[in-house]
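Give me the 3D structure for Alkylation response protein AidB-like acyl-CoA dehydrogenase.
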Amino acid sequence: MTVESLEDFRTRARSWLSDAEPPEVPLDLDERFAVLRRWQQTLFEAGWVGLAWSPEAGGGGLTHAHQLVFVEELVRARAPQPVGLIGLEVVGPSIDRYGTDWQRRELLPRMLSGEDIWCQGFSEPGAGSDLASLRTRAVADGDDYLVSGQKIWTSWAHEAQWCALLVRTDPSVRKQAGISYLLVDMTSPGITARPIRQMTGDREFCEVFFDEVRVPRRNLLGAENEGWAIATHTLGSERGAATLRRRVELDVALEDAIDELRGSRTPSDRVLAAIGRAHVAMRVLDAQTRQTTARLLADTGPTPLDSVDKLVLNHVEQTVFAEIAGLLGPLRAVPGSRPAGLRADRWAHEHLYSRAASIYGGSAQIQRTIVAQRLLGLPRG
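Predicted structure for Alkylation response protein AidB-like acyl-CoA dehydrogenase (381 residues):
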């Protein structure tokens, strides 16, 4: 089969997006979720979701380069990302690679369309940065597992239909060796999801409780007690995809801020210095993501270099939004205000959310440890 050239694909994507009338994204979280879910359905029906997934999984069978091109065009068109990114970018690639025929056939098409939203049940109150210390357990019971425990920082768990859940199935072996990866129906009896209000005012993070939840054995992804390797693949997919997508999103956000500042008045030296520092940070991220793109296109799988990407992205994201928010002054707390022409609601929210960048997807401390031990060969402390 002849694969469409990237140039032709970009032209086609740009043309479709120009006619698609992407939705405005509300600040209210519930309204935002509903709008973005409908938008994912629109993208799916037009064939723009799962571009690099295998055709057997319902995807487009194209290359990662095509996926990157569409992300670029989507952001450049100021169109929002679909709501189901945890499924599309994080969990889905692992199910596509390691799943059974039944799992891929039954779960992935509904993930692509947005009919099913997925959450990621990895972190726990005592096992966030040290994920391998997780204590949520799954005990075999006939054709099922009985799952009990708690997860936290589980984005969209209160809206999700499915959860990619790491559980301990063998407590007698070293901690990485006794972990399994379950695909859990969130409507199962015994699951309670409680949203947590963040400093942004949003409540998409949740704590989730599992009380003797019955999960069929056919929902085991890969082999029992071999979930750590699949979890590593999942986290690698998350970091690589997020870095490349966020690079474009941050670039466009900075362009938007400059346009707002330019429309207000002649910029002061303070404004120029802040924008200059943000631009320098962005150029660092551009340089880093050239390597990220090369690894993704080569399909090398997870590597310790993913942690370098994550650390650079953390720093750049927080730098860009801190520089913009710093120009708001005390008016950042006044709804609807536009100090220096900047939309305070947007930039204050972006700045607050950016503080989580060094935690989600693996904390900065853990990424530094991975770099130290696996890239630099330093001894364990």
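The first strand starts at residue 118 and ends at 121. Let me know if you want a second pass.
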